[in-house]
Amino acid sequence: MLCKVFCACCNGLEINTITVEVSVSDGIRFFLVGLPDSAVKESQQRIESTFACNGFRFPGKRITINLAPANIRKEGSLFDVALAIGILCASSQLPEPICARLSEFMILGELSLDGHLREIPGALPIIIHAKEEGFKGCILPTISAMEGAEIDGISVFGAETFSDVIQILLSPESAESKIVTPQSVIAVSNCTEEAQNYDFAQVKGQMQAKRGLEIAAAGGHNIILNGSPGSGKTFLSKCLNSILPPLSKDESIQTSKIYSVAGLLGTETKKENHYGGLLKHRPFRSPHHTITVPALIGGGAHGLPGEISLAHNGVLFCDEFAEYDRRAIEVMRQPLEDGIIQISRVKVKHVYPARFMLVATMNPCPCGLFYEKAGKCKCSSTEIIKYRRRISGPVMDRIDIQIIVRAVAPNELIATSATNTNGESSKKIAERVRTARHIQQQRYIRNNESFLTNAAITPSKLPTYCKLHKEEAVFMEAVINKLNISARGFTRVLKIARTIADLEGSQDINIAHLAEAVSLRCPEKDEMI
Ligand SMILES: [Zn+2]
Predict the structure, then answer these.
(1) CA of 368 to the centre of ligand 1 (A)
(2) Among 36, 122, 205, 356, who pairs with 10 as Cys (CB 3.0-4.6 Å)?
(3) Which CATH class is domain 194-527?
(4) What is this structure's pTM?
């Protein structure tokens, strides 16, 4: 008898439906064909053991299993349950209604030897794929099914054991309690939320850096804080987390899919004080400067997404940017420009989204004191130039906002503490950021654009959204000539000016907006080497 069960496999974020065809006939051999890797081939042992625990017998006949389509590589142990169900159906060990219902479900999961189901990676994109393909339901290990709790339009069943899977297939109507819903998402209370630990109200002085970070958050611009050790640039950068606008559902699904494929969605949602469902906060990734290139951009043996993709729709924070491996800095050029990264593996290419805000800090020179009082820095100009060249011109050019952060002057510290007026709270700044983002989204959605933030405006659309009136154009021309701004630099200035105008609620870009954008883009020339 021939039987078909449906499951799926992930190649990066691309999901393919896999049809497991099982035929049982006379003979005594077990064949598994259709480009399976060793983990798939080993499934026979796990299935035999599960059958023994659940009172089924492994047919002592000729069993042929084909995983179709044959040209796609099948990796991992997520096909176990589908193979087991297929073997039982093909050897007539399951009631007829189950075999008739198999075409309505996508079934996935790894079996343990006692018949329990183990978590699989990529559950969220698989559930979304099953919905798009018109399947009525998905049956997954409970812990993986939780990832699809907030996806509507498909019934996602969570099964603890192999016999749960059979119960669900036997009568999906009476197994409704096993369907995961938004209510299944569990609140985890004992975690501390990092955002609460960093608030702009705690930062004294540093008005320009705060303003720069507010503009960066409002328009999704990349930013680098260049300053002395102890000037608070790391703390300032971490405060950014507290003013970022909330994730929209679409953005959350995009980013959650990447975490799901990396097998990190459960861990990440736990950090966000809930378990299951989608990510609720923008990611804030801060890889250490010793990170390897594959860990940063993705790849390795399984082609998993790297830090820049895990930061999609959020922030990639690189503290001490000049200390990173030079190659790691250079590979960020393509994603900084296009918002995607291509990873090549043997025979396969994966494309992952990687539209992140780069937030970096660096010292101005090897000793770090270049911007402090004259005479403090003892570095030679050759040393300083060599140090700054660690970040190449093309990468620096892609960082929209560049700010010099000096240690707060003692009189400024005393002035702010004497009047007991701390800086503005993150909550207030976040409101302005949210309004500015809303203005951008409305504008770009109305015109059916592919981007939603000012930082992502494509070159061809720049004249439409960053139009300058005559007076402003004359002003910019003079500035370009005086400061020798490159063509790319000019487009960045326009985008920043657009964000400043949006923060003010102004439709037009005026000279004040442009002047501030230039000052954020090009720190005073005499301070640079
Ligand atoms: Zn120095």
Answers:
(1) 5
(2) 122
(3) alpha beta
(4) 0.91
